[in-house]
Amino acid sequence: MIIPCSEKCAYEKEGLCTLKHATYSSGTPLKDCPYYKEKNKNKDKAPK
Fold first, then answer.
1. Dihedral in degrees, nearest 10, Cα atoms 19, 23, 29, 31
2. Alpha-carbon span 9 to 35, nearest angstrom
3. Backbone angles phi, psi at 12, to 5 degrees
4. Strand locations in 1-48, DSSP E?
């Protein structure tokens, strides 16, 4: 199933949700997504 994702979420890649299975709610749902998880800012930065 293809699920569009426009959030800055750990499961988002190229505008799509990459979560492969239902899991527990994140506790901090955003809009219509109960699985929203903030991206790790350290992984988003290129090494110096």
1. 50
2. 9
3. -85, 135
4. 12-13, 16-17
The pLDDT tens digits of the residues spanning 7-46 come to 888 888 999 989 888 777 777 667 778 888 888 765 544 4
Q: Determine the Cα–Cα distance for residues 37 and 25; give it in Å rounded to an integer.
A: 10
Distances from the Cα of 1 to the Cαs of 17, 18, 19, 20, 28, in angstroms? Answer: 10, 10, 10, 9, 23
Structural domains in the chain (count): 1
Distance CA 11, CA 9 (A): 5
| Domain boundaries, position 23 | 1-48
pTM of this structure: 0.61
